[in-house]
Amino acid sequence: MSTNYYLRHKPTFGQINELTDLIRSTKNGEHFKEVIDMVNKIYGEPDEYDQTNEWGKLHIGKRSNGWKFQWCPNIIKHNMSYMENGEYIPKYEYEYRYPLTKQGLTDFIMQDDIVVIDEYYEVQDKAEFLEMAFSWYPDGYDSCSYNNETKLYDFSKDQEKYKELGYTFSTGYQTDFFNDGLRWTIHENFS
Fold first, then answer.
1. DSSP β-ladder status, 114-118 and 75-79
2. d(C-alpha 132, C-alpha 159), whole Å
3. Per-residue model confidence as pLDDT tens digits over 7-25
4. Cα–Cα dist 46/40, whole Å
5. In Å, what is the CA distance from 151 to each residue of 139, 169, 173, 187, 188?
């Protein structure tokens, strides 16, 4: 059994009023796309290229029985790719939404406009959530201990961006890394 956790930005009064006004002005579906776009902006999840802080829901991590808590780094990916001599050269730069430390997570989550919810949309007390997550199965599995013998898939390519950010991996079979005693996934989208 596992549970995913998300952060939600509380909508501002301005956003609520703007959305309410737009809905009230909609006749015969004429502003339907604008309503959908605004709802997605207020309540949606950013993709890995979203360089704004205008997200409504952010996957923060997952707890699973027998495993250490897994945090999602939510790194923003800046596409810096270019063409050279007719050949496409992929290049990316990465930016953190929050520092990948206990203090960085705590500061980010404890902001007044942030709410922690689980996958069932139940609001979590932020301090209790952090206490639970920081202490969840400290001797539990991580990908290295679990995959050490199975070696199901080589994740070396998926590890590259984190190597560029200075993190190291003992094997190509790791789907997570550790920083400040916390287990972080190398995947943007996981559940």
1. unpaired
2. 27
3. 887 878 888 888 888 888 8
4. 9
5. 21, 14, 6, 18, 21
